[in-house]
Amino acid sequence: MAFLTPQGVKKVFQLQKPEGREHLRNLLNWEKFDEVRDSRRSILLDTFYESIIFAVGKGFPWVEVVQVVKFTQELLQETKGCSITQAITILRNKLSDYQGQFNTTHLLALCDYFYNTFIRHYRLYQYVLGQDQEVNLTINHVEVCVPPQPLPLAEGKDRDLCNLEQQLAELTTAEMQKRTNVLLLKEALHLEQEHMLQKKFSEMAVQQRRVLKREELENLINEAIHIQIKCLKELLQYEIQTTFDILDLKLQKKTLNLNAPIPFPLSISGQPGQDESLKTNKARKAKKAKDKRQSKDSLKKNH
After folding, report:
1. Given this model, what pLDDT does residue 40 score?
2. pLDDT, tens digit, 9 for 90 and up, residues 249-297
3. How far is CA 123 from CA 48, 74, 85, 229, in A?
4. Which segments carry the region annotation Disordered (predicted)?
5. Are residues 210 and 118 in the same domain?
6. Best label site of 15, 21, 74, 180, fewest CB within 10 Å?
7. What are φ and ψ of residue 171, in 5° steps?
8. Does the residue 297 lie in any domain?
9. What distances in angstroms separate CA 247 from CA 56, 61, 251, 254, one per listed residue?
């Protein structure tokens, strides 16, 4: 404790705890250490720091505060490995040794402090500071994601209105998808029709290398017409079904719009047309009241 001075402990007290502990470590001429891995030295530094805070809080002069830290160090060193009975005896003897350095009030305060802290938790102090500890430490670096910055409340929407817009968007998407499916089917049927006709014409060309008779030509034309009608029928059936589906989607959208929630109460004064109507009505009422008063006045004069 040769490095501790009254000015040094005064600065330790004036600083915040993290800075005060660091300054105390420098005054003790300790090398920098890992607070997590070297828990013994960290607790020992806390013990010295708390003794300074105690002494200043009890009104010890700065010179005596240095002696309190020295007293703490000697007590911890001399009681290492002792029983609690021996520790109490050592504490009593040390208090007697320091009678010349503290007055009676401060000596009693020092006795109470170490009895209520060191002696009361003596086994814990001995376990932590009196023997080597096997440190089994695992450190995992975990990335902490901060919550996203919330959007301005002014840009927010009513929940029911937001749900309505989402439902309308889904219905619109479904309608567009059905229209797209019709176009895709039309293109697919057109390609299938061309393929079937080409296949039929190729078969006729392979079977006969001569001029077709009237009956054969009619059959070929009928088959071509049949292929076209078949594709057209399939397309019309799909278009009819799709039309009904689209109408149903439009009906759902119309129903949703009719039952749409009102996000904010309507303000009569906020609508220009209604403002003009109110002004006109007030003017008419005022004119009627004025005419009525004038009529009464003229009747009184006539009488």
Report:
1. 84
2. 889 888 888 887 776 554 444 445 445 555 666 666 676 677 667 666 6
3. 18, 18, 12, 100
4. 268-303
5. no
6. 180
7. -65, -40
8. no
9. 86, 93, 6, 10
Does 283 reside within a domain?
Answer: no
Q: Which tens digits make up the pLDDT trace of 160-193?
A: 888 888 898 999 999 999 889 888 888 888 888 7
Number of domains in the chain: 2
In a domain, 35, yes or no: yes
- Residue ending a domain, among 109, 129, 149, is 129
Main-chain dihedrals φ then ψ at residue 13, nearest 5 degrees: -70, -35
In whole angstroms, what is the distance from residue 134 CA to residue 142 CA?
A: 25
**Residue ranges making up the domain that contains 166:** 158-261
CA distances from 294 to 244, 281, 298 (A): 69, 20, 6
Q: For residue 270, what pLDDT is reported?
A: 46
Residue with tokens 């607070």: 35
* Tokens found for residue 122: 């003596």
Query: Nearest to residue 56, comparing CAs of 66, 46, 42?
Result: 66
Q: Are residues 115 and 189 in the same domain?
A: no
- Does residue 222 lie in a domain region? yes
* Statement to judge: residues 118 and 10 lie in one domain: yes
| Structure tokens that stand for 78 in this block | 């001399």
| Same domain, yes or no: 51 and 104 | yes
Q: What b-and-e string marks burial along 155-193, b requiring 16 or more CB atoms within 10 Å of the CB?
A: eeeeeeeeebeeeeeebeeebeebeeebeeeeeebeeeb
The answer for residues whose C-beta is within 8 angstroms of residue 172's C-beta and 6 or more apart is: 253
